[in-house]
């Protein structure tokens, strides 16, 4: 039987936390059988009311979380993050243009290789039209796919420098985003922490309600919502795992460097 899997929202970054909650609210409003929704007509009124109350609470707490985060406009690092975001946008678009040009290369083998890379670029849509957190996620997925290509593929179409530049721009943005978050928290740590904690608690309460209602009413009324949330959780877990791996590798490299110097 379907259920929303457990996930510790504290393991992701501040803006990722908000974006996750925003998506959950949006999806819940669109597909959960709440009061006044035609899909709730055949369900017990008590369960519909309980679900509506829980979703309304999450939406209210998420809106409060958003309001606190909007102090970003007065944070100096926000300008750096915006500039870094624009830089990575251009790096993505310029790199894709290069691959498109290579897809028309007179050498058929190189053209086929370029089309393979172009397919990966188009697989996740244009990330530059998404929110910053969604763009970070899309670029992460793109880079994972590019890294998985056989050795020599990118070199054969002279794309290694373009790819390295995109990686640098992505890392530059992530660093600026981290600095922005730290400055925000330094400015209003209490307000942000309180709003985040309350929103996350409201999310956990909604998860408990949905999982309990599956046992009462069956999974059909809630299946679409559960599947959506679990996909979002899987995506965030992959990002957390990647960060952990990079951090561990960095420590190993730093230790190796220290041992070499010694």
UniProtKB/TrEMBL annotation:
<dbReference type="Pfam" id="PF19775">
    <property type="entry name" value="DUF6261"/>
</dbReference>
<feature type="region of interest" description="Disordered">
    <location>
        <begin position="242"/>
        <end position="262"/>
    </location>
</feature>
<dbReference type="InterPro" id="IPR046228">
    <property type="entry name" value="DUF6261"/>
</dbReference>
<feature type="compositionally biased region" description="Basic and acidic residues">
    <location>
        <begin position="250"/>
        <end position="262"/>
    </location>
</feature>
<protein>
    <submittedName>
        <fullName>DUF6261 family protein</fullName>
    </submittedName>
</protein>
